[in-house]
Amino acid sequence: MCPLRAAAKIEANKAFLKMSLWGTRKKRRHMENGGEGYVYEAAPATTGTAMLARITLFLLFFTTLFYIVLVPALFYYVYAYSSFWGAILLAVIFSTPLWARQHWTWFGETAGFVAWRHYFEFRIFKEAPIPITKSNPNVMLVALPHGLFPLILPLLGSVLKEAFPEFDGLTPSTAVANVMFYTPILAPMLVWLGCIPATKEAIVRSLKTNGCLILPDGIAGAFHSKREEECVYFETRKGFIELALKQGSTLVPMYCFGHSQLYDVYPSPKSWLARASRRWKFSLIFFWGEWWMPPLPRRVPLLVVTGKPMQLEKTPDPSKEFVAQVHAAFKERLLTLYYTHRDKVPGYENKKLIILYVSCAAVPRPLHQKWQRRLSRRHFREKADTHEQAP
Question: Please, which of 122, 177, 261, 262 could form a disulfide with 300 given CB 3.0 to 4.6 Å?
Answer without folding.
Answer: 261
